[in-house]
Amino acid sequence: MGTGQPRGIKAARKLRNHRRKQRWASKPYKKKHLGTALKANPFEGASHAKGIVVEKIGIEAKQPNSAIRKCCRVQLIKNGKKIAAFVPNDGCLNYIEENDEVLVSGFGRAGHSVGDIPGVRFKVVKVAGVSLKALFLEKKDKPRS
C-alpha cells in the first residue's frame, strides 16, 4: 500500500516544501524562528543588563510561604523597560539606594519566575560596579557616588 507521501525521482521539491510547512506546527521551532520571544524578552537576548534602581519594593511570597521578599524596580538603560529584580542574601537591600546603577541577570529558569516570588524573573548581581556578594561578605566597600 502507499505511504501517504510522494515518492520517485521528481518528488524532492514537493517533499521539501511540505517539510518546510510542517515545521511551523512544532512549538520549539516556531518559538525560535518567529523572533517574538526575543522581542518580549527585556534583555533582548543578552545574559545581563545594566539598569537604574527606580524604587525598592517588598513582594509577598506565594502560598503556603509567608514572607516579604526584598526586590527592586529597575529601569534598563538599553531599552527603558522596567523590571522587578530580586535582591539576594540577608540584608543586601541596605547596599542598594534609589538611582544606583545595578547589573541584573536572569534568575535561572530561562524567563520563568523562581520559587515563591511571583513575577520576578531577574536578580541583582552588582551595585555601582561592585559585586553584591563582595559587599555582603564585607570584602569590598561600595564606592561613594
Question: What is the 3D shape?
Answer: elongated
The multimeric state of the shown protein is: single chain
Overall helicity:
10-25%
Percent in strands = 25-35%
Mean pLDDT: 92
Radius of gyration: 23 Å
- Going across the biggest sheet, name each strand in turn: 1-2-3-5-4
Count of extended strands = 6
Write the layout of secondary structure elements.
Layout lengths: L11 H12 L3 H8 L1 H5 L7 E13 L7 E9 L5 E5 L14 E6 L15 E6 L2 E2 H5 L9
Parallel strand pairs: 3-5
Antiparallel strand pairs: 1-2, 1-4, 2-3, 4-5, 5-6
Explain the overall architecture.
A hairpin with a 5-residue loop joins strand 2 (68-76) and strand 3. With 145 residues, this protein is an alpha+beta fold. Strands 1-2-3-5-4 form a five-stranded mixed beta barrel. The protein is elongated. It is built from four helices and six strands. The chain has helices spanning 12-23, 27-34, 36-40, 132-136; strands at 48-60, 68-76, 82-86, 101-106, 122-127, 130-131.
Short account of what is shown:
With 145 residues, the chain is of the alpha+beta class. It contains four helices and six strands.
